[in-house]
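chain below, 191 aa
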Amino acid sequence: PKGLRSADGATLAETYRYSFETARPSLYRQDPPPESAWVEPHQVFELSFDQPVSEIASHVWLELLPVHERVALSLERTVDVATEERQARPRERWMQPDRELPDARTRYALKPERPLPLDTAMELVVDGALAGQQGPLTVGAQQRTPLRTYGTPRVMRVACGYDYSTDCPYGPLTLTFNNPIDVETLESRIA
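prediction:
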């Protein structure tokens, strides 16, 4: 405030005002990753933020496309990422410089409240109103990540040779599927 005296006797001529803003929560990692086409019906979705967030299950959901049907997610577990890393490598020295903020990275595991239908496009939606626990700011804009559940196995492409041409008297024959295939099962069915 104006008139405040310092240790050397000087007086503050004007009231000094300053303002600051807490950091917005930021999603920095997601599993499965964006564009994944092999999401499982009982998939656990892991979202990692740079700080703890409030009421995540209320602000994150799946939206099945094209009908925009909402599927709720329930919180399975919360993980302090820095603690997990220190426990995974206990012999390493973990020093935190005094000037840095504490490592508040937090991972949330969320599971759909019902099985997801196969071969279905969807979006993982993070509501823009999701707020951090360290301040009132939210993530800001809504974030949508396209995903898809795996479907019935289908051959997507058959190619011959190493250059995928149609001319290959000596092979190899390359089969490309829409999702991972068990090689032993495939080999037993090729004649």
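Residues 81-88 form the longest helix (8 residues). The two ends are 88 Å apart (CA to CA).
thats it, cya
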